[in-house]
Amino acid sequence: MTLEHVGALNLIEIEFADKKQIIDAWRRLFEHLGTMHNRYPGEVYIDGDTLEQKNYKDDLFWRRINNERHTLLAKTLHSMAREMGFKIEQLEIFEGGYTPQGWEDEQLEARIVRKSFIDLLHGRRLLPVVLIGGENDSSGVDEQTQ
Predict the structure, then answer these.
(1) 97: alpha, beta or left, given left = phi > 0 and alpha = psi -120 to 50?
(2) For 38, which DSSP code?
(3) Which in 45, 47, 53, 73 has the greatest CB count within 10 A?
(4) Which of 32, 30, 59, 28 is nearest to 43 (CA)?
(5) 63 in the same domain as 22
(6) CB neighbours (10 Å) of residue 69?
(7) Residue 77 belongs to some domain of the structure
(8) Tell me: the pLDDT tens digits for 33-87?
């Protein structure tokens, strides 16, 4: 979620404070966003799962959570649109919109980098180190330039 998206969500409560249907939909979305969700049986790691199996289960879990969030967001936006006189179906909201792939890629890469550094900090990941300039160095780096 971008800063702009969170800011817009936070304004709904202020802009539509007297619109019960909108506030109810917004609260369901916020409750979902603030809940630690349990995994369904097919999403739970089992002893002996390979990294590939764990990644698959993670993918199932996050796809489900994201689908639930998108559905709740579409319902919230639909209730807002109706209040403002727009004629649009929930499905159009759910399937509509445009997010550049570059933004998606950038957010995914940033999450991966943050997680890698956190794992490194907590000792769950190792940082490979290569010695350059030693007697057995074959990198071609001249020792006098170091």
Answers:
(1) left
(2) P
(3) 73
(4) 59
(5) yes
(6) 14
(7) yes
(8) 999 999 999 999 999 999 889 989 998 999 999 899 989 998 999 899 889 998 8
